[in-house]
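Problem: given the chain below (146 residues), write out its structure.
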Amino acid sequence: MTEKEYQQMNREICPVSPAGRDLPLAFAVGGAVCVLGQVVWSWLEAQGVEPSTASALASISLIALSALLTGLNVYDDIARYAGAGTLVPITGFANSMVSPAMEFKTEGYILGLGAKMFSIAGPVLVYGISTSVGYGVLYYLWTVNR
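Solution.
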């Protein structure tokens, strides 16, 4: 297959995304997710919860809601409509953790759902922790020499 034939086949299979519609929609949905998190945070703070605790609880609430919607097969419908607006906020990470697990739930809760839950989270945690350690070492070396 030549490069020209491949490009023609690709054009036929992959529809062109209407960026004029998709970009504002992704922005609006991503912003709505962030506004929801802010509403939860503000409500918790109004209830007397410390700001740092309210922030953590707001994030946990968004993660739980995303996981629940993924488990109910609703999140994919929202993502199909909103595109990257559901991918960028913290809800996208929760979806990426729960989705692989849902594919293997027929193999049982332990060997299927439980084992696959961390197929995405594992590398993220490993690289996140490794990067934070590297950053900490560089920060230490930078501040010691001053």
